[in-house]
Amino acid sequence: MSQGAARKAVEAVWRIEAGRLVAGLARITQDVGLAEEFAQDALVAALDQWPGSGVPPNPGGWLMTVAKNRAIDAHRRRVVHLRAAERLGRDADPTDGPEPDLEDALDDHIGDDLLRLVFTACHPSLPMDNRVALVLRCLGGLSTDEIARAFLIPEATAAQRIVRAKRKLAEQHVPFALPTPPEMAERLASVLEVVYLVFNEGYSATAGQDWTRPALCHEALRLGRVIAGLIPREPEVHGLLALMEIQASRLRARNGPDGAPVRLGDQDRRTWDHLLIRRGLESLARAEALDAPVGPYTLQAEIAACHARARTAADTDWERIVALYTVLGHIWPNPVVTLNHAAALGLAGRPADGLDKLDTLDEMSRGAGLSGYPQLAAVRGDLLARLGRSADAAAEFRRAAAATRNDGEKALFLARVRDLQP
Amino acid sequence: MRYIVLLTGHRPTDAPPELMKAIMELGAEASASGALLDTAGLAPATDAARVELREGHLSVMDGPFTEAKEVISYAIYDVRSKEEAVEWARRFMAVHQQHVPEWDAVSDVLRLMGPEDFGPPA
């Protein structure tokens, strides 16, 4: 096997096994940072040996054995070191006990271990960007370089986020454990937030020339599917997955042949990915079948599903979407929901109500910095255009174009300005 | 990127229950890891038909067909690389190797065209 082919084969196995490997090792080490390092050692060993020996018949097992041996070596070294310290009359460490029964520890409950890993890597004590980097690294099997490229940051910055995250978990003695029931809601919210942030980073890149960076959407989808398998009884887990599957179904339709972004209403719906839509609707049904109140992700997925079910843009059930936004605004009041609610009112043929809605937003967000948000001007522009106030509308779209950092979006807003000019 | 894995071979007369169990377990693992999007078995060729265009003429033929090899199942994977799709196909075939080593079959790993084939330059 050639070097390049072997490397790719190793990476493919790594991608499949990284999460379970790190999770199983963290059960032994009780330290995600150490576990991740032992797993990396195994990856390095595979990259070194597989090009010569070929990929072993059970590559996941091979990686785990190598990583476990590293963990045992490290444990022995620590014990030797502690005994030496003891001889020198220093305090013995209470962990200086018999070697842990590693075989037993590893064979059971890999699902539980993965779940512990998910919650630990998304621990609220870590800054958000650290959580994101650690999750992509430990669960997604991404390299530091891949994380850096995905987020358009220098590799050193990505590496630093991971190092800091691991250090902080160790310093704060964050246990490799599931949240207690009282912690559960907050901890689950953090997990879902991390996943959705990764998705959105890919779906609407905040900077640069790419309207979407689909690779990040796929990473988030895969994480969402893993988590939905691990936490099947929480509606919002399925709600988030449904939302992402349905939104991702439109990735292909979001750009025209020239690369320019295409708005939802103008998209060629034949190019929507119907396999993802089907999966999204199934996840949504799963969320709603659970005997629990719906949350913001499920409601957003419901809205996305309204679009997915409409054969043409004109078939869209805007009244239902407006109703869903009304509920969403009650349980999860925030400026972006209000903004989308206003836009939906315009599309439901009630642009004046939409403008009223935007006025409540101005009161809500005074001082919250939304005034520079390009979508605010764009929605106002759209509502004004529907009311026939072309000059005011054009001014709003010009403001939106000046405010956005996304080149494709800028072109879209400027096109609206041209359309509005007499 | 997305790959479809098509399993082709002589349809086994009776698959041992352990094989079916192992296939289900692998499928559950691949789904849980987020890679397996869709999979199904295909009914025997006695239920199949073939619509053929040959020398400008259309003909419709009901199964079974003269060649005894059939497409037995498909699986669609969402993966980062061809190698990852190959690894899942390899695991799938290894399960057969373990339970029905005397059986000959082929899994073709084919990329489904996606946005990267039609979209704007990256």
Strand content of chain B: 35-45%
Tally of helical runs of chain A: 19
What's the count of strands of chain A? 0
Q: How large is the radius of gyration of chain A?
A: 25 Å
Give the % helix of chain B. Answer: 25-40%
> Regarding CATH, which class of the domain at 317-422 in chain A?
Mainly Alpha
Helix content of chain A: 55-70%
Organism (chain B): Pseudonocardia aurantiaca
InterPro entries (chain B): Dimeric_a/b-barrel, YCII
Pfam families (chain B): YCII (PF03795)
Protein name (chain B): YciI family protein
Question: What do you see in this structure?
Answer:
- The complex is a heterodimer of chains A (422) and B (122).
- Among the domains of chain A are: 4-91, no CATH class; 317-422, Tetratricopeptide repeat domain (Serine Threonine Protein Phosphatase 5, Tetratricopeptide repeat).
- Chain A starts with a helix and ends with a helix.
- Helix content of chain A is 70%, strand content 0%.
- Chain A has 19 helices and no strands.
- By secondary structure, chain A is mainly α.
- Mean pLDDT of chain A is 87; it is low at 92-108.
- In chain A, 44% of the residues are buried.
- With 122 residues, chain B is an alpha+beta fold.
- Chain B has three helices and six strands; from the N terminus they run βαββββαβα.
- Chain B has a four-stranded antiparallel sheet with strand order 2-5-1-6.
- In chain B, helix 1 packs antiparallel against helix 2.
- The two termini of chain B are 14 Å apart.
- The mean pLDDT of chain B is 91.
- Chains A and B meet through helix 1 and helix 10 of A and helix 2 of B.
- Chain A: Belongs to the sigma-70 factor family. ECF subfamily.
